[in-house]
Amino acid sequence: MRSLFATMISVIALASAVRAQPDASQPKQALADFLLEYMEARYSGLDIDGDVLYVSVRSQRMYHVRGRMMHKEYVISTSAKGLGGEQDSYRTPTGLHYVRERFGAGLPPWSILRDREPTGKIADSTASGTRDVITSRILWLCGMESGVNEGGNVDSHARWIYIHGTADECSLGTPSSRGCVRMRNCDVIELFDQVPVGALVVIYDN
Q1: Percentage of the chain with pLDDT > 70?
Q2: What range does the domain containing 197 cover?
Q3: Model pLDDT, residue 126
Q4: What are phi and psi of 190, to 5 degrees?
Q5: How would DSSP label each residue in 146-195?
Q6: How far, in Å, CA of 178 to CA of 81, rounded?
Q7: Percentage of residues of the chain with pLDDT beyond 90
Q8: Eight-state DSSP code of residue 23
Q9: Chain CA centroid to CA 69, Å
């Protein structure tokens, strides 16, 4: 069986191929296959037959794998401060997570949420001070790796790590968030309508 190291080298190479060939369905599916093989080896007994979201920090892309098939690719942004799980670090945590809670169902696009509640306001992408505004939908993540993203001072859920819409869509594709995974408003609404509570999310630096 292919070693974990060899598998991850293949994942990195295929992720690069996917970016270079945005319409190449075969490399995208190969990326999904290698990702799932790696997850099966690393997280023994994990059910990966449902929805899996793979956040590639290096490429600033998120891949939605459903039923072991590559379903969709999204441009995203992770933290401007890099990777890390510590409280108040404003870094993006790595490793295995799941969607624990969802907020914003039915809200108009670009709706502003504060403390996961709608404010009744609509974001203006041209206004100043919109960089950290959370918009449209929230998928609240919970870590599944003790000492990495779960428990103590590295708990992703306690740190309010979300996948969410942003009013600063121009920054997507580059690390620019305060720890969360940012998406376009139309994309996060689409994803929200497809991904249930319990869906797996893996965040890797490759």
Answers
A1: 86
A2: 50-204
A3: 79
A4: -60, -45
A5: BTTTBSGGG-TTTTT-EEEEES-GGGTTSS-BSSSEEE-HHHHHHHHTT-
A6: 7
A7: 82
A8: T
A9: 17
The CATH number of residue 163's host domain is 2.40.440.10
pLDDT surpasses 90 at 15: no
> Is residue 135 a part of any domain in this protein?
yes
**Residue 122 in tokens:** 């609509």
Lowest-confidence pick of 16-25, 126-135, 195-204: 16-25
- Could you tell me the two tokens for 87? 């409280």
DSSP three-state, residue 39 = helix
Comparing CA positions, the residue from 189, 158, 205, 180 lying closest to residue 76 is: 180
Partner residues linked to 17 by β-bridges: none
Distance CA 133, CA 156 (A): 19
19 domain residue, yes or no: no
| Token digits of residue 58 | 């290096």
DSSP conformation class of 19: H
Burial track 96-114 (b if 16+ CB lie within 10 A, e otherwise): bbbbeebbbeebeebbbbe
Number of domains in the chain: 1
Query: What span, in angstroms and rounded, lies between the C-alpha atoms of 135 and 111?
Result: 5
State mean pLDDT over 83-107. 98
Q: What is the pTM of this model?
A: 0.87
Decide: 143 and 157 in contact? Cβ < 8 Å. Answer: yes
Looking up tokens 């690390």 gives 175
